[in-house]
Every structure is written in structure tokens, then in C-alpha cells.
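Reopening this one. Same input as before:
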Amino acid sequence: MTQNLDQKKMELIREIMDIEEASLLEKIESDIKESKQQSGIWDKVIKPIRKTVSIVELVEEQSYEPIEADAFFELAESIAIEEPLEELLLQLD
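Same output, byte for byte:
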């Protein structure tokens, strides 16, 4: 695997050494820098998924606290939405 990767690097170096246009070299340099930055951002934002996780673990990690049905319906009633459901659904588009 490393040998194949080293071969690819050497091929790229040879290709780059043959380039005579400064603008093309600048574009390649810019693309490389951008790719490295994106890779770093990806690693910071995306966390690997564990191979095993239980519902209990998720509940504990997220500090989940269920809401009582009466409290939910009380909150829903206090919003006092007057528009028909169809109209509200159309607003989602």
C-alpha cells in the first residue's frame, strides 16, 4: 500500500515538474490547500459511529427527559394555531 502511494506521489511530482504555466501551478497549489482544509474540517465535524450503542447509552448521553402528555397538550394548546393543517403544511415547501 505504501509503495503504491509513494509511486503516485512520484508520478504527481514528475507531472508537476513538467508544468511551465505559473497559473496552472497556482491552481494546483490552491486545490491542494483547499483539500487539506476541507479534510481537517470534516474530521472536526464528523465523528465516527461506534460499533455498538444502546438506547440506554443514548438517553444518558443526551440527558433525555420525556415530557408528560398533559404538559405537551397544554403547550400545544397555548400556541393557539388557527390556520388549517393543510395551509401549515403548504408553508413547509
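So the earlier flakiness isn't reproducible anymore. For the record, The chain has a mean pLDDT of 87.
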